[in-house]
Design a protein that fits this description.
By secondary structure, this protein is an alpha+beta fold. It is built from six helices and eight strands.
């Protein structure tokens, strides 16, 4: 996974397990702009650390949203400011009144700051849960040829992985060079030289 010929580094390997939660919960599809910072691009191996900033447009009644990926011992500034508990990895939702910190794979959500929990009543469970866990959902997706399952390639996982990998285009663009992404046509519109990395010969 650490070599370009065989994989896509941590962004392709682990981000799918962490960023699927915000991608699904916030109904994200195609980012309009992606910017990255990391070490200089190596011709053979994937970066050991990366920070990727995705910008999404408004979706229906939902406003535009920014989503940032960190890996390789990089962390949001909230950690340095002491606003978060000891935390290995996962997802962090930052709102106007507080934050929700989730563990790996979206597990064990915690409302922050602690003072917010005193008056908070969790909402009833209304969203579907995959029966049989992730493997049961995956098998149903295979049997149905995709469909509306969490594992459906055309409906969720395909566009989601596309979004993740645009981060590598942004890394190749360089610092302070946002990639403008045309998701419908799967191409970078402002830096066309990056489109050579979208598909293999």
């Amino acid at each position: 996974r650490g070599w370009w010929d065989f994989g896509g580094g941590t962004l392709a390997d682990m981000a799918c397990h962490y960023m699927d939660l915000p991608h699904w919960a916030l109904d994200l599809r195609h980012p309009v702009s992606v910017e990255a910072q990391g070490p200089p691009v190596h011709p053979e191996s994937c970066p050991v650390w990366l920070i990727v900033k995705y910008q999404y447009p408004a979706r229906g009644k939902m406003p535009p949203v920014n989503l940032t990926w960190y890996n390789g011992k990089r962390r949001p500034h909230y950690f340095q400011e002491g606003k978060l508990p000891k935390w290995g990895d996962g997802s962090l939702f930052v709102g106007e009144k507080g934050m929700i910190c989730c563990g790996s794979h979206g597990g064990a959500p915690v409302l922050l700051p602690v003072s917010r929990r005193q008056d908070f009543t969790p909402p009833p469970k209304t969203l579907p849960r995959p029966s049989g866990g992730i493997m049961g959902d995956f098998l149903r997706a295979c049997q149905a040829g995709g469909g509306s399952t969490f594992s459906g390639f055309a409906t969720f996982s395909g566009p989601f992985m596309e979004m993740l990998l645009v981060g590598h285009l942004a890394m190749r663009a360089g610092l302070n060079k946002p990639v403008e992404w045309d998701g419908a046509n799967m191409k970078c519109t402002n830096l066309p030289e990056l489109n050579q990395y979208v598909k293999r010969e």
